[in-house]
Amino acid sequence: IRSGRRGRKHKRLAKVLLERILINKYTIAQECKRLAISKSGVAKRCTKAMREIVDSPHGAELPNGQYALIANGAYFRFNRREWVLYIMALKPTNSDKAYFLDPVLIKGQEKCEAWCKAIDTIPPDIRKRICAFVTDGLRGSQRLSEENSWHHQRCQFHLLSSFVRGKSKRRYRIRGGAPRDQILKVTRILLTSEDEKALKKARAKLRTLLTQPTCAAYIRKHAIEFLEREDDFRMYLYHPELNLPTTTNAVESTVHMVRGATRTARTPQSLLLRATAFLRLKKFVVCNGEENQQN
Asked: For every residue of the chain, which 3-state class applies, written as one string?
């Protein structure tokens, strides 16, 4: 007769409980009622499950081929000090999914040196297959792209939204509303058109609009930067074979989910634990290439 193992039976990883709290946003109090156990019991189960997930090897299976690295930073504050959670996802050129890497939490403001540290955590065999960098114009993005020989695609949504201040009807009452609408129309042509004559005409029209006295200073600032870095916003047209997304919205929407999953974190260590567990459970986000996106 086989002798029984001493001690309590080993329980399965509380993955369902973790998914309900981190992804489905159920509270610990709600889970207490469902499981008929104390709050401390639910909290201990969740913490143990998160540590087991984080301590285990990253189980994401990435498709073969080249990848586009989509990056975004999220600010948090602990004891009046700023921390940035660097979130990265890899989008294969032949897929409409972006797979999450483990996030990196660094103290201080978002900067190029910190992004270098975050990118250095990517395994070498995966990093060498990255061919493009998709950002919202984060600090040092141009330098990082050049140093790694990556194609740089800037977020078009951030550019267009930078021309608009306020929300709803209020944005149409600000100074410079009329030329702004024309600038938006011309900018969309520059972002999407492949007709050289139309592009040349649009550039001339945009420069003329920027010289008008009714053009707001903040619009002029962003439009001038766009003209200087126009190629970065049109990289998806220059390399259609890479199927690059034209926005970082897929990852930014995940940042909002991460904030919800880490809403009860009170320390940087707890934040990183919860964020890593959440992204490993979520695994990927749908991120269409330029053929399926609209500005």
From this structure: CCCCCCCCCCCCCCHHHHHHHHHCCCCHHHHHHHHCCCHHHHHHHHHHHHHHHHHCCCCCCCCCCCEEEEEEEEEEEECCEEEEEEEEEEEECCCCEEEECCCEEEECCCCHHHHHHHHHCCCHHHHCCEEEEEECCCCCHHHHHHHHCCEEEECHHHHHHHCCCCCHHHHHHCCCHHHHHHHHHHHHHHHHCCCHHHHHHHHHHHHHHHCCCCCCHHHHHHHHHHHHCHHHHCHHHHCHHHCCCCCCHHHHHHHHHHHHHCCCCCCHHHHHHHHHHHHHHHCEEECCCHHHCCC
